[in-house]
Amino acid sequence: MTRWKPTDYNPDDFANRRHIGPSPAEMAEMLKVVGADSLEALIDQTVPAAIRQDAALDWPALSEAALLDRMRQVAARNTVMTSLIGQGYHGTVTPPAIQRNILENPAWYTAYTPYQPEIAQGRLEALLNFQTMVADLTGLPVANASLLDEATAAAEAMAMAQRQAKSKARGFFVDRNLHPQTIAVIETRAAPLGIEVIQGAAEDLDPKAVFGAIFQYPGTYGHVRDLAGDIAALHDAGALAVVATDLLALCLLREPGAMGADIAVGSAQRFGVPMGYGGPHAAFMSCRDELKRAMPGRIVGVSIDAKGNQAYRLSLQTREQHIRREKATSNVCTAQALLAVMASFYAVFHGPVGLRAIAQRVHLHAVTIANALRAAGAEVAPDAFFDTITVRVGVGQAGILAAARHRGINLRKVGRDRVGISVDETTDPGVIARLLDAFGITDAPAPAQAPAIPEDLLRETDYLTHPVFHMNRAESEMMRYMRRLSDRDLALDRAMIPLGSCTMKLNAAAEMMPITWPEFGALHPFAPAEQAAGYAEAIADLTDKLCQITGYDAFSMQPNSGAQGEYAGLLTIAAYHKSRGEDRDVCLIPVSAHGTNPASAQMCGMKVVVVKSAPNGDIDLEDFSDKAAKAGNRLAAVMITYPSTHGVFEDTLREVCDITHKHGGQVYIDGANMNALVGLVKPGEIGGDVSHLNLHKTFAIPHGGGGPGMGPIGVKAHLAPFLPGDPQTGEGAVSAAPYGSASILLISWAYCLMMGGAGLTQATRVAILNANYIASRLAGAYPILFMGNRGRVAHECIIDTRPFADHGVTVDDIAKRLIDNGFHAPTMSWPVAGTLMVEPTESETKAEIDRFITALLAIRAEITEVAEGRIEAHQSPLRHAPHTVEDLVADWDRPYSREQGCFPPGAFRVDKYWPPVGRVDNAYGDRNLVCTCPPLETYAEAAE
Question: What residues does the Glycine cleavage system P-protein N-terminal domain cover (predicted)?
C-alpha cells in the first residue's frame, strides 16, 4: 500500500493562494455566519440577476515566475536610449537608498492618504519637506503637497488666477515658449470655462486683455530671461503671473518669487524620479501667502496634539470638492505623494550643496556642447540658457536625428530645420562625444568653464536652509531617517485598512517589481514609438482586458487620477453632443455621489442638478425621472456610482439608464466600486456609455500615501472618436503624457495576468463575502445602513454611529480608538455624516477581519459604559484615543486602566503599533497655518 496521495493543491495559483485572503475552509466558516449555502448563492442574493453578465472572463492565469518572465520579454522590446529630448522630462539618477527604502518599500507605497494624521506623521513630515523644498527653490512662501503633472498644475494655476485676479478680463496669455503639452492641457481646461487662451511672444503681451499669464522659465527651447518687467505690467493691470519652472535650474537661476511671480508650477521629476514613459511624477505649485487659501490640492500644515506636542496634518479643508461640490473650483482630491516623497528625499540626500553641484555640472555640459557646435560653424540658440539649446540644421534635420539615434541618442525635432538638445544629470563626457559625433565633430571638446547665464539672472538667495537638508548624508543616517519616518505610519504592511470606496487591497511584490526596471523606467514619453514596442504591447493587452471586463469598446489611458478620469469622461460626452450640434449642459447627480462628481461637471461647463436619494439609499427614481424630463433636450449626462455609494446594488439601474437615453443624455458610471463588479457585471452592457476605472483601487496599483493613481476611461463605440487627444498633436488632452502615468499601468496589467479571468471573478465574490461577514458579525452591536432589498451589502457596509452622539461619543472618537487597536479607521462621515463605511477587500484574511471585528465590538462595549453612566465620555478611553507611549509612561490619573487604554482587544502585544502623537487639533492648525518646515526650536517649545 503506497503512502503516495495525489494533491490538487497548486502553490503557484496566485489568485487563490496569494491575493485572496480567506482560505476555502475559512470561506465555509464565514458563509455559515452570513447564512448562505455557498459563495455563488451569496452572489445570487446580492447582485440582481437582470444585470449579471453572461460570458465569463476566461483568459488563463500566470504564476509569479511566469509573469516576471513575460515582463522581461516585453521589457526587452523597449529600446532604452539616452533621451536628450527635454520638454519637461529628463534623465535622472535615483539614489539606490531611495529606490530601495522608499519606492520599493511597502511601508511607503501601500499607505493611504493621510486623512488620519495621527498614523501618518512620517509621510506628512516627508511631504512637508517637499513643500519646503518647493517654496525655497521657487521663492514663494507656500507650496502644496504635489499635483498630478506639470501640465495639469499649469491648468489649475490658470483657474486659480482667474478666481483671484482683480482684472475681469476673460483672456489668459500663454507664452509660446511653454512646453507644447502644457499648452494643450491649458486649452482643454479653458474651453468649457469660457477662458480665451492667447498665445504669443512675451513682447506681444497686452496686460489689460488678460486676467493672467503664464511663462516658461527656462523656456521649452532653452531661453532664460528676466520676467520681472512682464510681471510688473501684469500687476499694474490687476492680472496675475504664473511661472512654469524647473527646480534644478532654480539652484542657479534667480527664483520666480524674486521676479514678483504670484504662482509657480512645474515638475519634480528630475529630482530622482524615473521618466517612466510619462509618469508618475510629482508636480508642484507654490504661491504668494495671500493666495494660499485658493490653492488647489493638498497642503500639509503644522498643528499640535492633545498634549500640545507638534503634529502634522492636512490643512485648509483641502478636499474642497467634498464641501463645495458643484461650486468647487477644482476636482483635485489626490496628489502624487509617493513621488513627492522621493523628490523630497532626493533633496535631503544631496542637500543644497549637492543640488547646486549637479545643476552646475548639467549647465556646464550644455555650455560645452554649445561651444563645440558653434566652433564647428553651427547656429545655436539661445545665448542665455540652463540645460537646453536648439541647433539650426536646415534640410539636414532628418539626417541629424537619425545619426543621433544610430549613436543611441534621442534629440528633439523642432520645427522643420532645428533640433533640440536638453542635457541632464546622466549626461557625461561619453554622451557628449557621441552627440557631437552625430554632428560630424570628432575632436574632444574643451570642458566649459564660464556659464551661459547672465550675471543679473544668477541666484543670489540661499535655499534649503532648514536643518533637515543639512543632515549627515552618510547612507547609514539616510537609511535610519527613512526608517524612522516609515515607523510613524500605519500602512498595509502592518494592518488592514478598511476604507470604504478606496479598496486598499494587496499590492503584490511581483506586480511592483517591473516598474523599477530601466527598460520601463528610463523611457522618455515622447521617444519615437518604435522604441516603446514593449509599452505598446502591455497597454494594448491591458486595454483589451479592461474592455472585456467592462463591456466597453475603447479606452483612453491618459487620465492619471480617478477625478481626472471623471473630467475626461464628461469632456468626451460634451464633445460628442457638440459634434451632433446639440447644446446640452445639464448633468444629473445623486446627492450621495462623490464630491468630485459635481466638481468635475462644473469644470466641464455643465450645470449640476442634484437628485434625491430614497430612504433605502437608492436613487429616488421619481425625482430622477422628473428632473430628467425637465432638462429635456438639455440633458447631457447622469453621473452614477454602481454599486451605489451606500454600498448596495440598486435594482433600478437599467431604468435610470433608459430614462437618460430617452432624453438623449449619456450615462456616466463612476468606477469607484468596480471591485464589486469585475467578472459579474459589465457596466458597458447595462446602460453605461462611459466609466472611469480607479486602477489604484480595483486593479492593484498602490495608493502610495496619497498617489499615484490612474483613472483611464472606457467608452462605447459612439464616444470613442472623442476620447482625449495626444498632448503633442491632438485636441482634448487632459494630461501631459499620452498614456498618463504609463509605468504604473504595468502593475494593473501584471495583476490581470496573474489573476486570470477566473481569479478576478473570484476576487469580486470574496470581496462581497468579506463585507457581508463583517455586516453579519456587527449587526447586533451597530446599526448597519442600506442592507439592500435582499438584506445583503455589496463589497462595503456602512456602520451607523450617529445614535452614540446622544451619549457624547462621536464618529471621530471611534476612528481614533481604532488606532489603539492597530487599525486605520474606515471612511468617516461619507456618504452619510456620522457613519463609518467599511470595505475589507478580498485580500484580507479571516484572522485579520476577525481582529477588526473584535476591536469594534470592544469599542462598542466602551460606548455602552458611557451610555450607562459608568464613565463620562470625556474621561473614557474613546475620548483620550489614540494612546501614545508618552501616555503609557506618564502619571496615570484616568478612571480606566493603562491596560485598557493602551492594549485594547484586537491590539497586538509584542508588535503593538504606537502612534507618535496624540489626537491632532485640526482647528488649531487652520488658525495657525504653517506649511513649511518649522525651525527646530519649535520642536523644543512644543515639548516643554
Answer: 17-439, 452-725
